Amino acid sequence: MMINRICIFLSCVCFLGGCGINDEPMPQIVTGSVYEPAVIPPRIIAPKQVSRGSYSNISRTWFPPSQLEKGWRAIVVHHTATDFGNAAIIDKWHRERNHWEGVGYDFVIGNGTDSADGQVEVTFRWRKQITGAHCRAEPNNWANKDGIGICLVGNFDKTAPSSRQVQSLVKLIRFLQKRYGIPNNRIYGHKTTPGARVTECPGRNLSIYRLRAMLN
Predict the structure, then answer these.
(1) What is the mean pLDDT of the segment spanning 146-173?
(2) Tally of domains within the chain
(3) Does residue 8 sit within a domain?
(4) Residue 51: inside a domain
(5) Does residue 79 belong to any structural domain of this protein?
């Protein structure tokens, strides 16, 4: 009998002791609407703006209208694959043969035939800051939408660009790099543009790798 009382007493002590150490609060029951985290809008990066006064010996025609200016991300270099031409002639070709709105490039650099050797012509696409028609590339036609098209007059499978053409090309690209923060590894030839169709443009005698080295 005494043993039974002792067992009952110890059982009560253990039970009460166990409750004593379980001092965590009961979980709170929340009613009503469930909390939803706020949606954080994507960060919009504006084009790198550099005042015109910070440039020297740059043609005013190279600056697009500030109210239209886009944030360009790449540069694509082309050749006409012809011995002659200028912006007006290419515009005619692209309208009549391709049924485009006009010349597909943003800039055309002459070779001394129909415009001065090394002359940089600015096309309507650059002045209006609209999508180009020079390099369709996947995904989403990105090189036309976000890439600046520069075309040198000449067939660089047969000849090399003139020294004046190269000088003008380097000067123009440096201007564009400074204004839009475009790195050397985003300067392409048509044939090396990611997602572009197979082509030989801008020809074997215009090396994009040498061009990049000149920009360093």
Answers:
(1) 98
(2) 1
(3) no
(4) no
(5) yes
Q: Are 151 and 122 in contact (CB under 8 A)?
A: no
The Cβ of residue 200 has, within 10 Å, a number of other Cβ atoms equal to 13
pTM for this predicted structure: 0.76
| pLDDT at residue 48 is higher than 60 | no
First to last CA, the chain: 100
Confidence band, pLDDT 50/70/90 cuts, at residue 148: very high
* pLDDT digit string, tens, across residues 62-108: 999 999 999 999 999 999 999 999 999 999 999 999 999 999 999 99
- Asked, for residue 123, whether it belongs to a domain, the answer is yes
Q: What is the pLDDT of residue 51?
A: 52
| Residue-range definition of the domain harbouring residue 110 | 71-215
How far is CA 69 from its chain centroid?
14
CATH number of the domain that residue 138 is part of: 3.40.80.10
Q: Which of 187, 170, 206, 168 is nearest to 72 (CA)?
A: 187
| Type of residue found at 148 | I
Per the DSSP assignment, residues forming a β-bridge with 196 are: 137
- Give me the mean pLDDT over the 167-183 stretch: 98
Determine contact, residues 86/163, Cβ cutoff 8 Å.
no
Question: What are the DSSP E strand ranges found in 58-139?
Answer: 74-79, 107-109, 120-122
HEC sequence for 21-71: HCCCCCCCCCCCCCCCCCCCCCCCCCCCCCCHHHCCCCCHHHCCCCCCCCC
